[in-house]
Amino acid sequence: MAISDRSVISNLKFIYKKEGDHLKGKLKYFQHRDDRDTHIQQRDGNGDPIRRWEDRGLGDNYNSIAQSCSQLATSGLKNDVGARTLVLSPQVEFMAAIPPDMRMAVMAELTDATVERWFEEMRLPQAEYAFVVHKGEVKTDRPEGIEQENKEFVHSHVVLAATTPGFSQDRENYKVYKEQLEDLHRVSTEEMERIWTRELGVERVQELNQDLEQLTAELKQADLDKSQIIPDPSQRDIDEAMLDIYEATGLEPPEELLERVYEARLEQANDRDPVQDLRDLGFDIPDDEPNPIRDLEEMGFDFSGDAEIHTREDVVDVARELGFEIPDETAYDFSEDEIDILQAYRDLGFVIPDDDMTHSDELEEIIEDLRDLGFEIPRDDGMDIDPEPQPEIFDMDMD
Question: Does the predicted TM-score (pTM) go above 0.70?
Answer without folding.
Answer: no
